[in-house]
Amino acid sequence: MSIIHKQVFENQTVSTNVKAAPVNPKFNLDYAASIKWTTPTFVSDETTPKVAITAPTSTTSIEAGAAVAIAATATDTDGTISKVEFSVNGTLISTDETSPYTATWTPTTKGAYTITAKATDNTNKTGTATVTANVTVPQSPYGGTPLAIPGKIEFEHFDEGGADAAYSDSSPGSETDVAFRADEDVDIENCTDVGTGYNLGWTVAGEWLEYTVNVGAAGKYKLDLRVACSGTGRTITLKMGETTIANNVTIPSTTGWQIWQTVTVPEVTLAAGKQVLRVTIGATDYVNLNYMTFTSLDVKDDCPNDPNKTAPGTCGCGVPDVDTDKDGIMDCLDGCPADAKKTAPGLCGCGVVEGTCSTISIPLKAGWNLVGYPYEKSVTIEIAFSSIFDKLEIVKDQNGFYTKSGSQFLNSLKTVSWAKGYLIKVSAPCELKWTDK
Fold first, then answer.
1. Which CATH number fits domain 50-136: 3.50.50.60, 3.40.800.20, 3.65.10.10, 2.60.40.10?
2. Which fold has domain 143-296?
3. What is the mean pLDDT of each run of 10 residues along the chain (437 residues)?
4. 85, 333, 399, 425: which could join 393 in a potential S-S bond, CB 3.0 to 4.6 Å?
5. What is the DSSP string of 259-320?
6. Which residues lie across from 111 on neighbouring strands?
């Protein structure tokens, strides 16, 4: 009404906002008095199913790998509940048609998940409820095995378990685009120190990281810290459990974030066994950390150039005493280090059970014997006659010869091939076995 009046009688440019100009004094018109303002009321459909998730809640502690019990209630005022469907991040995991409505879900990775319960009644009306579940991984050593002391510990090998469990970081996400442990908030960057790899950067006062370690023997140790920073006032503190082992260690300016220097704590005292080491950044922001090394002061070091060993052990300095297949034989002595059932290739090779591959046996008498290689390929003399190599003396064909006791440089026969004949001389009766691996 006010808009038409102004346009017709006053030839004015008109605002459509009646609330802004409620009165026209020229004609003593009160537009606002003619209008009754109301707020619309939205009425929900009370006949749709009402559903609520009772477990888990947003505060429930959930660990990856553990089964999670999901429970919901559902009611309908004008009918019955036909089913309740449970989904996680939009993927249906279970349907329950009878009360109490439940499902089981086992998360495999950490993160935030949306759990949805959707109730359907007998008229196909639906109602939904959601809850956000935060899944963590239990704190555990990086790689699954406690880090060994004495030994070298990379700072980027902090425990699994995520923020506030294995570490505290002041900002979410990483300051870099390095792919290594990119799902963590700790800032990891490429390192140009000797050995390259990674280092921690952008460390802020009060941030901390934890490392599950196994101290081989109680006693005194030298601690070396590989560090870099530009500026003074930086410190770090190390605690083993509740005991401070190195307090406010001064980190000098190395004049650059990738100019590395070793800072030595001459002596720290450690208890033996599995425990948690915490490294905390001091009051001044920013120090780059590459690795730390613990060296025993109580044990004679017979492997001074091997930070992981103080004695040669089975495999010697510089070679880890590792038994990959857990068969009791160290890899350095195991001809089949990844095959728990074999320590030598045998006729069939590592990973293949003896007697299950194709084998041809040929009895030989002492002295000269004529044999032919039966497989469509060529193999070396050493492989072809491995089953009798301790008795083998000479192999020859029409073009060349092989003498085991002579100079290998002079041997003109190196391999045997399919469909060719060979004269072989052995020192005693034996059985030649040829295998098509």
1. 2.60.40.10
2. Jelly Rolls (2.60.120)
3. 46 53 59 64 78 95 91 95 97 96 93 95 96 90 95 96 91 90 93 96 97 95 97 97 96 97 97 97 97 90 86 93 93 91 77 76 93 88 92 94 87 90 95 83
4. 425
5. --EEEEEEEEEE-SEEEEEEEEE-SS---EEEEEEEEESSS--S-TT-TT-SS-TTT-TTS-
6. 135
